[in-house]
Amino acid sequence: MASMFNPSLHKQRHQFVVDFIQRNKPKKVVDLGCGECSLLSRLKFRREIELLVGVDIDERKLRRKTLGLAPLSTDFLQPTFEQLRVELYHGSVLEKDARVRGFDLVTSIEVIEHLHLADVKCFSAVVFGYMAPKAVIISTPNSEFNPLLPGLSGFRHSDHKFEWTRAEFTSWALEACCHYGYEVEFTGVGRAPQGQQVGFCSQIAVFHRVRRENICNVPPGYDPEDEFSYTQLYSVNYPSLRDNNTLRRVLVSEVLYWTETLKNKWMEERSGDPGAEFSSWLAARGKQLHENQTTWQEYLEHPSDQCSTRALWDGEGYDHLPSAEHQQPFTLHSSLWVPLGFLCSCIPKVSSLSGSVEHLKLLLMDAPEVRLSVDGSAVIVNCLQQNDQNEKEVNDIEDTGSADACQFNSTAERVEDWEDEVYDEGSPCVKTSSGRV
Ligand SMILES: C[S@@+](CC[C@H](N)C(=O)[O-])C[C@H]1O[C@@H](n2cnc3c(N)ncnc32)[C@H](O)[C@@H]1O
Ligand SMILES: [Mg+2]
């Protein structure tokens, strides 16, 4: 049978669900009779889903592929604002469990035919009456197709309790609609050869819940005894930027990366002229970026162009930056001070993660990897090379000012109180620049 369909029937059924999800964007999805979780492993990539649950009666099957549902390293390295929780339960589709009630979508792919016919009514009551999701996708073999399957005698699988014709499937589905207030469309996957009027190899019914007043029978009442009949085997929360710890971790990495890169650019580009002032460099570079309609982030992402920097420094009159309303970075003795306002306004990645300067400050305040000024308004980056460190420490005892610090009279007063702190602590403020994710 496998060779009859390409892609395989199994893949086509799962693709049908994936396409449905892409169109309808359900947030809570449960796969009943999920087996070895192959559909769930595909659905975990559909990030519109926030809660993805699998239920099966076969615990061994469930445990075999649990690892396939775990977040990948990229989920940790590049988390998004989307949220996903995956849960696996050992239990029967014939029993009620409140944890899968009121979902947007229930799927049950090639499961119903494994139930005894006498239990199918109970399945309908649990799925449509108790779980009462917005939509349901049920697939099952179409017995009318069986004569076309080479070498098949009897049912398609030894565990099948029945296989329905299209009329039998339709009759069951319409009855469930009438009882529980759903409407249904019929389709399938696995086309018959041309001229054969037998329907699809796998027949599929897609149910949508209709308005409450259309429900013929009130769903069975809430039974506290049945509320938690499943046993949870697995649950995992995917990393999300909506979680404060994840957001802080990513933001810290970004802030360390961009402040270190800014420092490195400055140090690289001034290498031919150790006396070059940071303020002139910043102003000239800012003006050039403005003229080229380039953002600081774009500039920092690319290798230095030392020639053009030399030319910039030879110019004059760069006493303001295009984004003058934002505080500008400045050097104070051996440190680079990067105001959070600058990071938020000039580095879109930082602003989109933090949302505001205040929020950025709040998140960085508890992060030991980032050194903030006393008032929390700027990140302080040490500019000394390791081998300059000792010499500088000795010099600092006698020399309390530097040329660069004097360039920033306007800001010097503001940071007067912080200055002691910069020198008292003396150690590099940034431990790493490569921790960015
Ligand atoms: C043919 S497999 C389909 C697996 C999966 N839906 C897929 O598409 O790959 C049928 C699954 O239904 C499960 N099953 C059978 N009876 C069940 C019940 N009463 N409750 C939950 N799962 C059941 C079986 O353990 C098996 O994993
Ligand atoms: Mg089957």
UniProtKB/TrEMBL annotation:
Record flagged with keyword Endoplasmic reticulum: no
Protein name: Small RNA 2'-O-methyltransferase
GO MF annotations in UniProt: metal ion binding; RNA binding; small RNA 2'-O-methyltransferase activity
Organism: Gouania willdenowi
GO BP annotations listed: piRNA processing; RNA methylation; siRNA processing
GO cellular component, one term: cytoplasm
Keyword vocabulary terms for this entry: Magnesium, Metal-binding, Methyltransferase, RNA-binding, RNA-mediated gene silencing, S-adenosyl-L-methionine, Transferase
Obligatory cofactor(s): Mg(2+)
Catalytically driven reaction(s): small RNA 3'-end nucleotide + S-adenosyl-L-methionine = small RNA 3'-end 2'-O-methylnucleotide + S-adenosyl-L-homocysteine + H(+)
Source species, domain of life: Eukaryota
